[in-house]
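Collaborator request log, item 7. Partner lab (contact: R.S.) asked for a structural prediction of Protein kinase domain-containing protein to inform their binding assays.
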Amino acid sequence: MLIYEYMPNKNLDLFIFNQTGGASLDWGACFDIIVGIARGLLYLHRDSRLRIIHMDLKASDVLGSEMNPKNSDFGLARPFGGDQTEANTKRVMGTYGYMSPEYAIDGVFSVKSDVFSFGVLVLEIVSDKRNRRFYHPDHDLNLLGHAWKLWNEGREMELVDVLMEGPLHKAEVLLCVQVGLLCVQQRPEDRPTMSWVVLMLDSENPILAHPKQPGFYTERFPVDTDSSSTGKRPATSNELTVTMLHAR
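Returned to partner:
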């Protein structure tokens, strides 16, 4: 049984995706939440008695009172002891859209798996869009691919939620987009540790690397169907190539 303190603000999912039709967060609150989540993960990875891998970090697992973020729901968390840095499992459990490629495909997890989930969450907070079921009229990329495309084109500010309240701090927005993209890179060894993430977010003039291609950077191909009369977005499917094998 897990017992939490009462959280009048419920969870972050309800705020950044505005499911209840309530007021949106301003940028100052969004940035503080991003930094708070990062510090919470850093504590799990470095400062707790055992190194803890959360394994399922997502917006609905971030709770807060007075808008102070608290990482929660440790039902899938795994402790690491000693000098252990990674492990694998044959039973992959978690939330699609937040799982790192190496965990979703091969069952390999480490602190870099949480870093990937954090990066997804950062880009979701900035854009007010979910990584899963993300839709854009100009392409069929997911949110990670869309963010990387905008970054390469120097159009990062277009990722920001147009309904976000209050003035925007452009330097902080650009910092968060780049940090988010660094965290969701395909290869775990390319991703920063949470200690580096916190340092980058806390520094006034951080020197950041250029992010490489994000994980799950695949374009979804729409099914050939007429959806114009219904007003619904077209269904999508993954492109699959099948090689026929013939015996000699």
